[in-house]
Amino acid sequence: MSEYIKAEYGALAKNELIQNNRASMLASGYTDIQLDMLPPKAIMGIACGNPTSACDLQPGMKLLDLGCGVGTDVILGGLKVMPGGLSIGLDFLPEMITRAKACAAECTALDESATDFYVQDIGLGKYDFDNNFFDYVISNCCICLVNQNKVFPEVFRVLKPGVNFVFCEEAYKAEASMPPELDKLIKEAIDQKITPISNDSVASIIFRIYVALAKNNAIEKEKMLELLRQTGFESPQVVHETPQLLSMSEPLEMESDRLSNSELQEYTKCLEQTLKKFDVNDYMTFVTIKAQNS
């Protein structure tokens, strides 16, 4: 994971104003019924899909979420597997784990024993669980940021035979490449540590998507499916694909401690004009991938 994305993720963890962003979550595939079960702080609006919707979770099952953030999917999973089940979230950032525990505690419908959270870097590919421990492993917008050659074998190890790994991710569209003028501006933002002030706006979501594309963090669907097959998973497939209803209808506010105010204003104006010329859906899509442990 790049230092730029780590810094952005750390800023998200500290920003408690980002909550109850229902419109973005609905666009990502969550339902009103699901969101009504969550505390507002667990509705950040930062997702590539709704992985638990592709899982047949039942009471008594065990679920693992890799890169759990504020615990959104862990909580939704916990509500499905109780009584008697357990939904566990891992995240490398202690601040996110603290927020996730607080969100779970605020969910009055959730049994206290139904969820647990641990600080752990999922990218290392070493999880402190027994072989064949989980009924499902899920992830949301995290697999693209880690070394899949380390993560996939470990997921395979901790899953029970015959059950599924489900993850939602940002994927390239093979037929389109990002325009050079936009690619240049996004890479300048990465080099100069230019970031959106508001992380829950549509404009900032579009910006983050382009950052992932510019950093080559988005996945390539066919390569991902082949890697899952090589790891030993059976019948890996894209089970859902979601275009994003995003358009640059609002101003983009940026900040940087490396540029003067005039330089930042000039850059932001240029970026905003360029983003309005293109449709993010021409270059990426959000996919949900499911693969079964043999």
Structural write-up:
The protein has 294 residues and is of the alpha/beta class. It has one domain: Rossmann fold (3-Layer(aba) Sandwich), CATH 3.40.50.150. It is built from 10 helices and 9 strands. The strands form 2 sheets. The chain has a 7-stranded mixed beta sheet with strand order 3-2-1-4-5-9-7. The chain has a two-stranded antiparallel ribbon with strand order 6-8. Helix 7 (180-191) runs antiparallel to helix 10 (261-275). The chain starts with a helix and ends with a strand.
Q: Keyphrases for this structure?
A:
seven-stranded mixed beta sheet
Which shape, going by the Cα principal axes?
Answer: globular
Give the H and E element order.
HHHEHEHEEHEHEHHEEHE
Oligomer: single chain
CATH structural fold name? Rossmann fold
State the helicity in percent bands: 25-40%
What is the CATH architecture descriptor? 3-Layer(aba) Sandwich
Between the first and last Cα atoms, what is the distance in angstroms? 30 Å
How many domains is the backbone divided into?
A: 1
Strand percent estimate? 15-25%
Cα-atom radius of gyration? 19 Å
Number of helices: 10
The pLDDT mean sits at: 88
Main β-sheet description: 7 strands, mixed
Low-confidence stretches: none
CATH class: Alpha Beta
> Largest sheet, order of strands side by side?
3-2-1-4-5-9-7
CATH superfamily: Vaccinia Virus protein VP39
Number of β-strand runs: 9
Structure classification: alpha/beta
